[in-house]
Amino acid sequence: MREASFEIRESASEKIRTYALQAYPEEGCGVLLSSANGVIEDVYLMENAVPSETAARHYRIDPLQFYEIEKKAAGNGYEIAGFFHSHPDCIATPSKEDEAQMIPEMLYIITAVENGRCMEMNGFIKER
User: Given Cys at both, which of 32, 54, 60, 76 links 81, Cβ 3.0 to 4.6 Å?
Assistant: First the structure.
C-alpha cells in the first residue's frame, strides 16, 4: 500500500467533505469518477450498507447499488477511479480492515472528520 497523490475537481472534493460531515458520527462512503485523463471529476454518494450500530467504524457499499452507478458512470463518459469514505474521530489512514478490502490499483480517498469538522483528505492505492 502506498499513499497516492490525486487530482480532484473542487466540486467533487466539496461533495466528499459535505457528505462526510452529514454522515458524522458514522462513516460516509461513495464512488470516485474520473475522466480519461485520471482527474476525479465527480463522486456518487452511497448509503453506508452496514447496520447503524457499527457504522461509526465500518462501511460497505451495496454491490447492486454499485452496479447501477457503474452503468450510469459509463453512460456519462466516466470511469470508476476508486472509492472514498470518512473516518469519524480518527486519522485519514486506512485501517487494517480497509487494507484487507481494498482492490489493487484503485484509488481510495479517506477523509478524517473530528468533532464534526473535516480535517484532512488522503489518497491510497493498494499495489498488486
Answer: 32
Structural domain containing residue 113:
2-125
Give 24-64 pLDDT, tens digit per residue.
999 999 999 999 999 999 999 999 998 888 888 999 999 99
100 CA to centre of own chain: 15
Q: Which helix (H) or strand (E) holds 65?
A: helix 63-75
Angle at 110 between CA 78 and CA 20, to 5 degrees: 85
Please count the structural domains in the chain. 1
**Backbone φ, ψ for residue 108 (5° rounding):** -125, 120
Cβ burial of 27 (10 Å; 0-12, 13-18, 19+) is buried
Instruction: Give the cell for residue 73.
Output: 458512470
CATH of residue 60: 3.40.140.10
